[in-house]
Amino acid sequence: MSRDPAVPLLSARGLRVVFPGRRGAPAARAVDGVDLDVGAGEIVALVGESGCGKTTLARSLLGLVRPTGGAVRFGGAPLAYTGRALKAYRKRAQLVLQDPSGSLNPRHTVYDAVAEGLRIHGYAGDERAAVAEALSRAGLRPPERFFLRYPHELSGGQRQRVVIAGALVLEPELIVADEPVASLDASVRGEILALLLRLRDELGLSALVVTHDLGLAWNIADRVAVMYLGRIVETGPVETVLTAPRHPYTQALLSVLPESGGEPVVLSGEPPDPARVPRGCRFHVRCQALASGAAAAVSDHCRTKDLPVLAGDTSAAAACHLVTGTTAAVGD
Predict the structure, then answer these.
(1) pTM value?
(2) Which GO molecular function annotation, any one, does this entry have (predicted)?
(3) Is 118 helix (H, G, I), strand (E, B) or coil?
């Protein structure tokens, strides 16, 4: 089926996910207004600290968490939430989890782990050939050598490749990878990242890579979206965002990388409770620019004036009152 190349493969507009509070507590705004696109053959990195909402956003994009507001579209068509529609969608968009040990049933062989998706979706072709091809694409060659192995007989990198093969066997158009190398040794991380890049180049596969590591984003992504307290605060081509970050939060995240060459920025305190999002800029209570006086000219706006949702397309923008000439400029 042909598709308009101008239409993003995956698109979210105004996405919100709110979790009710317990015993009368305020509701938690885990995702609080997000626009985000992933184009065909594009790798987008979704970056932020633990608890910023990035995993909830990723799961809502896959239909695993139903959004409270906004809409998700895939290939230009709105995502429907019937069981049948979601089953069809999950064949086209697959999740790769961070911990391969937790993703794989220890009692299932590699063959059964990879074939499981085919069986769920009633695959009518040659199952053995499909499993072999998926394992081979994931870098486990010769694939037949791995068929009867169990997860405990594999290295961490091999287990992650089995998880990726289990996603590839359904021939998806999109992979959402949640911290795909976080549990792996440094020597193996580069191999898995190179694999994802190769899959993009060979298959035209799109990927949304969820990570706390801006260094990983630099190595793999075409575009980056930085998330803080339920909202995207900076976005754009990876070279633009990571070489000339404009949002103080992005600057702080980059400052701790060894290659940054400067003094690390130590943010004060913890991210606020998503049930109690601060008024104004949601980062202002930890902002180093505000604390140092560098943002004195816009300090009132920082504390009282909310910022708009950034566009989800390929344009570069930052939701910061210090930034001018973008959609995030100080309003009237």
Answers:
(1) 0.93
(2) ATP binding
(3) helix
